[in-house]
Records
---
Amino acid sequence: MKLAVIGTGYVGLVSGVCFSELGNDVICVDKVEAKIEMLNQGEVPIYEPGLKQLIDKNRTQGRLRFTTDLTEAVQTSDIILIAVGTPSLASGQADLSYIEQAAKEIGNSLNGFKIIVTKSTVPVGTNEKIQNIISTHSLFPFEVASVPEFLREGTAVQDTLFPDRIIIGTSDECTKLRLIELHAPLTSNIFVTDIRSAEMIKYASNAFLATKISFINEIANICEKVGADVTEVATGMGHDKRIGTSFLKAGIGYGGSCFPKDTQALIQIAGQMDYDFKLLKSVVEVNRDQRFNMIRKLESVLGELAGKTIALWGLAFKPETDDVRDAPAFEIITSLLERGVNVKTYDPIATDNFIKSYNIANIKYCQDAREAAKDADALCILTEWGEFQKIAPSLIQSWLKQPYLIDGRNIYSEEELAETQLNYYSVGRPNMNKGVKEMSPILLM
Ligand code: NAD
């Protein structure tokens, strides 16, 4: 099939590349010239494991092209996928300006019948808006369908090529058959529904996963008070098939470009219908507060933080991505700077993006994990990069000025800590400290 993908971000680029891998002719469009230039020179503007190899292969085989010319892309394709961003407005509502602009441009470019597929995460009713916008700019026939995206950054290529399920929202029989044909090579688990339900499935799924994370984080906080181990609790819970083990990893909470904005957007969607989504509001509040547990733990063990040097490992919101949108690191760093802390950070991939996105003065960005930890009063782990898990805690101890390790992602085991004199504080697990200083349970609120 001939496909155009509008927006070459994490979703559009990965989807376009994977559809070309399946043998389709794909043309990816972005309005940012620098991105398209990079892609046309064989460089990849985002970090996503396995993506570059697929881009190189499919470009060489002539199935994958990149352009800034939306009109040409639309006119030479049968199916147009919209994958532009839908960030949060200050109100928490989804900003639909990129969607509306893309719909207008598509409308102005139509030259015959097309299927327009919305992959971006959009509030219920948005596909109807897209339909209206396109029809005010074109007399050509078209169909709009919702096919929400569920890939996860860091494993986006795998998730796209081997999805758990595909959701297709359409009421048109021909569109349904074409979209089933397009997705059939990926999975047989294709669920077809109406457009509004498809739009809602995406928000409900993200809200549910965010709820699991906040739930286990609250259980972790209680475990710290009662002396239980949240990793054992989560494993025990997960043995129940109704619960499952995924998304029950305690830590410093979720971040990234989806869960924070999609939970806020769903609260707004409900609110506009006079429905107070109390549960989801609490999920968001718990998540935000969880980040600051790290600061409370630091204050509990180090006392006054002003003038201390704190090392932070990890700026990306999760491992295997360079995405720093709504990363817990930002709020943690801001809070430490407000307290007069000297902050040193290291991330294997995301440092450049972090500098570009947040432009925070007065922190030291280090070249490696050792440089960040060297002579610090404490080390905090914010992202569970594999690189950090391979560093022996005894080495960390030898680098630090004071033996405090605050692990926000529970990456080390008791055995790994046994040989060291590190005072180790993780999330929801019994503290492993060597008696240098006991953390007051009262402070672990
Ligand atoms: P992104 O910001 O990385 O990429 C969006 C791209 O669209 C940008 O490169 C931008 O320049 C381009 N763009 C915007 N308007 C355009 C236009 N008129 N013409 C051409 N290009 C245009 O966003 P993303 O992370 O890929 O997310 C896209 C959508 O998918 C969002 O709605 C998001 O919620 C959803 N989603 C994201 C993920 C994820 O993990 N990132 C997962 C599932 C769903």
---
Amino acid sequence: MDGGKAPAHELVIVPEGMIADLLTRRAAFDAVEQVFAAMASGAAVNFPVVREALGHEDALYGFKGGFDAAGGVLGLKAGGYWPHNLERRGIINHQSTVFLFDPDSGRVRAMVGGNLLTALRTAAASSVSIKHLARPDAKVLGMVGAGHQATFQLRAALETRTFEKVIGWNYHPEMLPTLAHVAEAAGVPFEAVELPELAEADVIITITSSFAPSLMAAHVSPGTHLACMGTDTKGKQEVEATLLARATVFTDEVAQSVSIGEAQHAVAAGLITAGAVTPVGAVINGAHPGRTSRDEITLFDGTGVGLQDLAVAAAIVEEAVARGMATIVPL
Ligand code: NAD
């Protein structure tokens, strides 16, 4: 990808409403897998995240940026969380937009709606981890969480491996039917369970906004692959910290994993060090063996990085230009 293959003197605009038509889960998966590999080899770098309380509308606003020299993609995602949007404006609370720049000249290249893109790139990240780290014979998928992101996570996971059953737990059990609906639409039976029954799962995705662990070490069987996707902020926590000491821990970006990801708690408690956390891209590149035994617990700490957004936005721009669906403005 080269940031969309539009001429350097034009700005490509792809609004939010077009993303669903332009971005397939397959394209998101490929873009994320590729950029994780580039990050691990040092060819792509995420910049420090800026996140500020605006003191207006109780909003949190920030930037996630990076440069992928291998893919020729430079840019940032700007946006955040406006908690009153739904009630006051009838639009979703998470709002973001991706901006891409020509890495040779710094000229702006594209502006891409970032809301659906974020959900699809987050789901792609856990799926990439499942592809590279779950046991080949994994049959039961466990879900912890049933909010907005959970349905995207579940759909993507069901397309990554052939699961025979989905089991799910949620803090608010009344939300579980949304997961049942997604699983059954994919032809896979769904069962609501209590946390200890997650021991039956071969793969578990956690995607909650919790600040205290739900999934404890005793709920996880040897050989399980965990994709912990909900913890992306200091203080959030989904799984018991001792689980990270029992597991081989992988992540998208080590610096984020140990500061704002699930690993922050195990590191703070002295249970593991940052050196024990491996970028999943190293497995994709063949520099790390990944899972080495049937009984090993693997844990992917997905914190969400700007380069994921940029990689997927670049794929969207390319598709929009190729299909004549982009708005193109001369600079
Ligand atoms: P949501 O508000 O739609 O759903 C929240 C989920 O958390 C629900 O399942 C809810 O029942 C559960 N929950 C709430 N309080 C809980 C508690 N005390 N204990 C256990 N579970 C609880 O949110 P969402 O949009 O689905 O996002 C879920 C999480 O994923 C958030 O923390 C969000 O910041 C994070 N996220 C991460 C990435 C990433 O790249 N890693 C990307 C997007 C979102």
---
Amino acid sequence: MSQLVKNISLKSYNSFGIDARAKQFFEFSEAEQLISFCKSIDIKDKEVFILGGGSNVLFTKDFNGLILHPVIKGIEITDETDSTVLVKVGAGEIWDTFVEWAVNNNYYGIENLSLIPGYVGASPVQNIGAYGVEVKDIIESVETIDIYDLTNRTFSNKDCEFEYRDSIFKSKLKSRFLITHVNFRLKKNGQLKTHYGNIETELKNFSAINLENVRQAIINIRQQKLPNPNEIGNAGSFFKNPIVSTDKANELKLEYPNIPTYPAGSRLTKLAAGWLIEQSGWKGKSIGDAAVHKNQALVIVNKANAKGFEINNLADMIVNSVFRKFGISLEKEVIIL
Ligand code: EPU
């Protein structure tokens, strides 16, 4: 299946539910379809954006270029050792469908990433993470097509230049390499990571600590704190947690003894953006239909018919407040278009 649609509404293609339009939208389920389409147009002349599940993007205006939307499916074991399996997954699989598949088959490694919205193809782009696990820990390689040269290129884990919520696909090589498949190395007998956040407390409600129950505990925790994008438009965390010098963090700790801090490498400390935003007075506040979520200040929601630019304006006001109060510049995690 492949199709080119012109002047399409993107409302059902982004989790904020923003009704922006795209001039051209090409959806395809096989890599070869993308290659023949690209041969038929002059792609270098166009503004291109690769859209997965649309759960980490904010359209602030109509998109005057070409959107590529891969819906490549498939979950396939391609290699097996005594202790691991290598799984090749199509970019268009829903991330949580893959996590569910892994847990049902007793493969360890991604259970802490349960219920993260979006497609598998987007998971390496922003190195999704939660509860002490990042997808870079499990990715072996990423298969792509260079949309300019129409050649295949496989990126090893190291080639992807993974950082906290970042990779080469979100920075240097943005919109150049279209991810078709991701290869994940999962473990047959892994160790559960239950020390992070409230997982241990939530697990007390279960009769045993096992793979399936850790997934369910994380689903429960996320459902309590995070708004369901099917009910109220949002893109999960809107901002990254800022990483500052440990000296700066220590200074803040003197003034705000309760500030949460996490070690982040040599003389660096990660702060909780949600905490900084709440302390700046924004939790639960709205401006029109754009609002800061009442249970988690890191999340901005579209209460009904907010425009993308209104959500972005609210985000800018938050950035200014946090800077004035703490001297820290929050960086947006969501891609602003
Ligand atoms: N906090 C507040 N007020 C708030 C929100 C948080 O005081 O409104 C405090 C919490 O009490 C806690 C600290 O901030 O002390 C950190 O909060 P939490 O553990 O909830 O995690 P987070 O830093 O807000 C990150 C990820 C989430 C991920 C969780 C769990 C980022 C940008 N966000 O959030 O990822 O689910 O950890 O691991 O790193 C996402 O990327 O969309 C996402 C939801």
